[in-house]
Amino acid sequence: MTGRPTKTTKLVLAATKRLGRDLTRDEALRLASALRVRQMQQQRVYKPRMELWDDGESATITALFELPGLGPSEVLLDVVDGRLVVTGERRPSPVLSARMACAQTSPGPSQIRELKYGTFRRAISIPAGCTTDDLEATLENGMLSVSWPRHPGEQDAHADDPTDSVDSPSDSFTSPRFGGSVVSRSSH
């Protein structure tokens, strides 16, 4: 019983046709290995899994993102066009990277790969007027929790104490959250 040809088989057949001769076993293996490396380099952006808590009455809304193995410096939070954007990159550990490289060059037993590595991005809508300054974020045990106010302008209206005000330019920056920019961008 023969199945559909794989991408590797198609590539070997195309190379054979182009060269006008059969490839040696070593040439075919090198070509297949190069294809795997190329596929890994053309990483697809994936969405981390998420849960959102909004009971409709609470003053805050919270999203929980599953980001195993990542530290705060590997996750970027931003607010763009009224959306919370969480981005970053998850890389395999050095030990796993070495094993993966070894497995690509020498044929061996089958592997099961269910973990996602590479660039991730998740964007969700947040209330109008919400900026990165309104976000409260923690990253613990691979779980990123991000909360924001249901009505962002109401908190600022109650904080108009003249003794707490400091003259600063409207473009002032505060410290970055999880390595990301705190600047909110919008198309307005």
List the helices and strands and how they pair.
Blueprint (H helix, E strand, L loop, with lengths): L6 H13 L5 H17 L8 E4 L6 E7 L8 E6 L2 E8 L3 H12 L12 E8 L10 E5 L2 E7 L2 H6 L31
Antiparallel strand pairs: 1-2, 2-7, 3-4, 4-5, 6-7
Helix pairs in contact: 1-2
Protein traits:
alpha+beta; 3-stranded antiparallel sheet; single chain; 188 residues; 4-stranded antiparallel sheet; 4 helices; disordered C terminus
Describe it for me?
There is one protein chain. With 188 residues, this protein is of the alpha+beta class. Helices cover 26% and strands 24% of the residues. α1 packs across α2. The longest helix is centred in the N-terminal third of the chain and has 17 residues. It is elongated and about 75 Å long. The C terminus is likely disordered.
Oligomeric state of shown chains: single chain
Largest sheet: 4 strands, antiparallel
Q: Total number of β-strand segments?
A: 7
Provide the spatial order of strands within the biggest beta sheet: 1-2-7-6
Range of helix content = 25-40%
The number of helical elements comes to 4
- In whole angstroms, the N-to-C terminal distance is 60 Å
Mean pLDDT: 76
Q: Low-confidence parts lasting 5 or more residues at pLDDT below 50?
A: 156-176, 180-188
Pairing-aware structural class of the strands and helices? alpha+beta
Which percent band covers the strand fraction? 15-25%
Radius of gyration: 24 Å
Note the run of SSEs as H and E: HHEEEEHEEEH
Name the shape in a single word. elongated
